[in-house]
Amino acid sequence: MSCGDPHDKDCSEVLDHLYEYLDREMPAGESEKFQVHIDECSPCLATYGLEQAVKKLVKRCCGHDDVPSDLRSKVMGRIELIQAGEVVSEASVRDQAAREQAQRERAADAASSGSAAACADGGDAGDARPEAARAE
User: Fold this and answer.
1) How far out from the chain centre does Cα 33 lie?
2) Which of 69, 74, 82, 97 has the fewest CB atoms below 10 angstroms from its CB?
3) 21 in Cβ contact with 34 (< 8 Å)
4) How far is CA 103 from its chain centroid?
């Protein structure tokens, strides 16, 4: 895309790197050149405004999802392995995920079995006190 006006940066280059600019992942010098282009170029400014609005909408609507608590540590651990030069195969990652899923399922089954036992006993299956003491 080009608006037809001469710019230091071509419109297509600006639009190709728009998300880097929006996410502030661009070096300061490049960012300033992009800002100058966007200020001068109405088609790029319109695209920039639309993309910025979409990012805000996505953040507002989807930014509250909870991430599993151990996810960050797993990701950081794998990054450290890769940086250390150790090979992390995709198969080993899948195997690890399958083992962790099986552990979660066993824990959920155990929890639901404990709840069922508590209901059948008329009380808490984990409570070793005599029934009279539980009634108090």
Assistant:
1) 30
2) 69
3) yes
4) 23
